Amino acid sequence: MTVQELPGAGASYRPTPPPSWRPRTEAAPLLPDAEPYRVLGTPAADKLDPELMRRCYAELVRGRRYNAQATALTRQGRLAVYPSTVGQEACEIAAALVLAEQDWLFPSYRDTLAAVARGLDPVQALTLLRGDWHTGYDPREHRIAPLSTPLATQLPHAVGLAHAARLRGDDVVALAMVGDGGTSEGDFHEALNFAAVWQAPVVFLVQNNGFAISVPLAKQTAAPTLAHKGVGYGMPGRLVDGNDVAAVHEVLAEAVHRARTGGGPTLVEAITYRMDAHTNADDATRYRDDDEVAAWKEHDPVELLERELTARGILDEAGIEAAKDAAETMAAALRERMNADPVLDPMDLFAHVYAEQTGRLREQAAMLRAELDAEAQG
């Protein structure tokens, strides 16, 4: 802004108008819908892909059984902790199925089911939660980043990978998953800001399950929705019913396509609910009542899809029983393998910490090796 001297005594000053200001991005197209997008139970369900929906159903049933089995393993002392996704299976399955083989999934600690649905061995997915290994699997094999226990730290990593892929000319999209609690972290802000500025091919999926452990969403943010936060960074925000697997898959598919074709990032908020406690170490009755949980059980993602598909003749009793049988087979194998005591090598503590071991790590490894050798000799 400049000032201009006016003629006359006293030499008065007045500001001149600054150059006209224009926003870099028009806000209106970025705003989410007023209500979560739905497919099941609406006219949009007429366009369901029967093959895709049958696969989604089988994965939902398997996912529900996987959650039950993993929770049981914590009670048996075979897992140190397990963050269940009962009630959130639609988000997990849609996120896994929407990606192409060359794409990358960046899960949070709660997203073991998404990793399994993408092809990861269920035992490997639980190895970190068992306390046996740093990650438990090779991230490059299925293009699944390590499960992220710190909140939202995987989001900047997803942006970095997606940006690097674009610079290299690789056809890669990153899909990063985070809970509503993670949106209160600085990493969330940094990731969305960089993604939008760089127009990185990345999709952010926020599973809004109502609570950051015991803290309800209303005590975390005053935003109209979490999807609205995308506007502040210059990316579209989408709001979707997170228990409607068809809707989540459609919204994520559009976001992945947009990212892949140069349209930049998208922030998707899926409204869902975790039926179980935060983890097996949490007492959810201290901060929510049974009536609230019961109301959400009426919107169970497995039952929603089953009712829709059977009503449309896409799924029959044989298909339902086949899905249940496959889930039981998976659970039995998982139970058997997890009940076997793992053979652990203490020297593995130093493996995969750095691409090349530092001098300090080599010193520590040598000290441990000497102690182990001395113990073995008597």
Report on this model:
Keywords: Oxidoreductase, Pyruvate, Thiamine pyrophosphate. Pfam families: E1_dh. InterPro entries: Alpha-ketoacid_DH_E1_comp (IPR050771), DH_E1 (IPR001017), PdhA/BkdA (IPR017596), THDP-binding (IPR029061). There is one protein chain. This protein is α/β, with parallel strands linked by helices and 378 residues long. It folds into two domains: 28-338, Rossmann fold (3-Layer(aba) Sandwich); 346-376. The chain has helices spanning 50-75, 89-97, 112-117, 122-130, 139-142, 154-168, 186-198, 229-233, 245-260, 290-297, 301-311, 317-338, 359-376; strands spanning 3-5, 13-15, 104-106, 174-179, 202-208, 211-212, 215-216, 237-241, 266-271. Strand 4 (174-179), helix 7 and strand 5 form a beta-alpha-beta unit. Helix 1 (50-75) runs parallel beside helix 12 (317-338), helix 2 packs parallel to helix 9 (245-260) and helix 6 runs parallel beside helix 7 (186-198). The protein is globular and about 85 Å long. The N and C termini lie far apart (82 Å).
Instruction: Name the shape in a single word.
Output: globular
Q: Helix tally?
A: 13
**CATH class category label of the largest domain:** Alpha Beta
Strand order of the largest sheet: 3-4-5-9-8
Concise synopsis of the structure shown:
Keywords: Oxidoreductase, Pyruvate, Thiamine pyrophosphate. With 378 residues, the protein is of the alpha/beta class. 43% of the residues lie in helices and 10% in strands.
Fill in the keyword field for this structure.
Rossmann fold, 10% strand, alpha/beta, 378 residues, five-stranded parallel beta sheet, 43% helix, single chain
